[in-house]
Specification:
By secondary structure, the chain is of the alpha/beta class. It is built from 13 helices and 12 strands. The chain is flat.
Length: 322
């Protein structure tokens, strides 16, 4: 598979996409509405100098929300716990002001030019896979004038792998429990945990998704940073228990629902007995970003991400069937 990935050019596998580019002068609420309508969770940012120099993603939004509300302060957190109703009023009053913030303000001190990674159409799939990490989830494709003409995401490459699954040989038939492709998750939350606490943890502990469980610790939902995409100015929604937030979000998003929307409530799962092939097909067919690995009682054990699969199959050791 590694040899195949090194000889497969990005330009041959990526379909043209309508690019969403956001200006630093754009208002937060306008940028969020545009990203929701176009079903994208990150976009290159165009500065006043006419150059694209970073990428705005939902984790940037989370960072600014936490900073804006002072949730890095222990006293503010204590106030949230002791007086949730009062804090909800603060969020409600702050939402309109926040929604009018510019993208330049949102990025602020979190400005990260290293998130902007680009390649050419003749770059190999293997090289692009090496560029993905916990900061970079999209690689932009440049033309000869160094202008962005397209982008390639991990699901684009995994879709190509699914169409050429025979290159995995016997590795594709092996169980994920044997391959080490399932990775630990950092935190698990009960269904009544407030969303604002979860996104605070996302930022402070550097992760973007968590399983949500019921009172018997059974998986009932997936909550990720992408779930704040409908948050425009109703910031008091952050005080909702996570299960209620997801149910409300489902109602709000009805006009945007498509067959490729990631399912948050009762998400797709896998077990350690699933084969690598089956996992790849499931991810490509549903276009979700991750699968939660559960036991026989539907309790979450670990997770499988597209990135963890791509990094695994690009290893040279995967060429050896034994």
């Amino acid at each position: 598979m590694q040899y195949f990935l090194k000889n497969q050019e990005i330009g041959d596998i990526v379909k043209p996409k309508e690019m969403v580019i956001i200006k630093t002068s754009s208002k937060y609420i306008d940028a969020m509405k545009l990203m929701l309508e176009r079903k994208v969770f990150s976009a290159p940012v165009l500065g006043e100098d006419g150059k694209v120099n970073t990428v705005l993603d939902l984790l940037d939004i989370v960072g600014y929300i936490i900073e804006f509300l002072g949730l890095k302060n222990a006293q503010t957190l204590e106030r949230l716990k002791q007086s949730p109703k009062e804090f909800s009023n603060i969020l409600r009053n702050s939402g309109e002001l926040f929604s009018q913030s510019t993208i330049q303000t949102v990025l602020g001190a979190n400005f990260k030019p290293e998130k902007l990674v680009a390649c050419r159409e003749n770059t190999s799939c293997y090289d692009v896979i090496q560029a993905y990490n916990n900061i970079v989830s999209k690689v932009f494709i440049l033309d000869k004038r160094n202008e962005i003409i397209n982008l390639v995401s991990p699901i684009d490459i995994l879709s190509m792998v699914a169409q050429n699954i025979h290159y995995l040989s016997m590795v594709g038939k092996r169980k994920i429990g044997e391959l080490g492709v399932a990775i630990p998750f950092k935190r698990c939350y009960k269904k009544d945990e407030r969303v604002i606490i979860i996104i605070k943890d996302f930022l402070s502990e550097n992760f973007i998704a968590a399983p949500i469980v019921d009172d018997r610790n059974k998986l009932i939902a997936n909550f990720s940073v992408s779930n704040i995409r409908t948050l425009h100015h109703d910031f008091d929604e952050l005080m909702l228990p996570v299960k209620d937030f997801l149910e409300y979000q489902k109602i709000k998003e009805k006009k945007y629902v498509t067959s490729i929307n990631e399912i948050s409530l009762f998400p797709l799962t896998s077990t350690l007995e699933d084969t690598l092939e089956n996992i790849i097909y499931k991810l490509v067919a549903t276009r979700v970003h991750r699968l939660w690995v559960v036991d026989n009682e539907q309790k979450p054990l670990s997770m499988i991400t597209i990135d963890s699969i791509l990094k695994l199959i690009s290893l040279k050791s995967m060429e050896i069937d034994s």
